Amino acid sequence: MNQLKCLLWDVDGTLADTERDGHRVAFNMAFEAAGMDRRWDEATYGELLKVTGGKERMRFDIERGGMADISDARIAELHASKTEMYQKLIADGAIPLRPGVLRLLQAAYDSGITLGVSTTTTPSALDALIEHSLGSEWFDRFAVLAAGDIVPAKKPAADIYLYAMQELGVQAGETLALEDSCNGWLSAQAAGLKCVITVNGYTRNQDFSGADLVVSEFGDADRDAIEVLDNPHALENLHHVELAHLQAIMQAD
Ligand code: XBP
Ligand code: MG
Fold it and tell me: Is 21 a residue of the active site?
């Protein structure tokens, strides 16, 4: 029977709802500051989310006829500007953690479970979220922060999960991924991991077939019960997701 030894956390959409009111807004601020006409409204950004990574997302928008064509170097400059804007938004407290995230992180940390981050986001954007939304003490509590261009292929490739597991010296059979999107789920699945999904407005209707639990949020005792979208292991008492549920998923066949 497998025991839960390691939790690997996705960032955008999982720790916090950063996409619509964080990354999207920061991209638009960078476009405006550069004198560009392009703006990504909420619906457009939802289409662009099929490509992970901010630089890759801009290139994808160019290829589909959205943004005017620019060089990779210009994309990199724009992305650096966007990351600065994003850090300011996070520092201003624009994006709170999702319900239950801090509770679950704390419970796992207190139980001696190894914690790590596996994300496509740029490291400095991740640092801002940890510092301002989680608290600086969490820099030391995550045993690995696997982020951005540290691997050549971003999600849905398995690389960022494989990298994090290698750094930590943990095996797939003792590691659980926490994700919010189809690309994240595909990445975790390709790395051989079990995975819990907390959906958001952008990802709710995506295909999570084969995931180990799909819920509206992790929730908390003092909130309404969470919505359970898929519960293949027939977990009980799912008013909110507790560490015991995650441990039960690892022990299930
Ligand atoms: C989500 C992403 C990221 C962000 C933008 O990653 O695809 O690219 O949208 O971040 P995850 P950058 O859910 O894996 O955290 O602009 O820094 O790439
Ligand atoms: Mg995500």
Answer: no
Last residue of a domain, one of 43, 60, 91: 91
Residue 149 designated active-site: no
Task: Name the pTM for this structure.
Answer: 0.97
Q: Atom 14 of ligand 1 has which residue's CA nearest to it?
A: 119
- pLDDT reported for residue 94: 81
Structural domain includes residue 139: yes
Asked whether residue 1 is domain-assigned, the answer is: no
Tokens of 142: 């995550």
Lining ligand 1 with CB less than 6 A are 10-13, 19, 23, 52-54, 119-122, 125, 155, 181, 184
pLDDT, tens only, 224-248 = 999 999 999 999 999 999 999 999 9
Return the bridge partners of 197, or none.
179, 214
Residue 253 pLDDT > 90: no
**Domain range enclosing 106:** 6-17+97-251
Looking at the structure, do residues 26 and 128 belong to the same domain, yes or no? no
Looking at the structure, do residues 118 and 225 belong to the same domain, yes or no?
yes
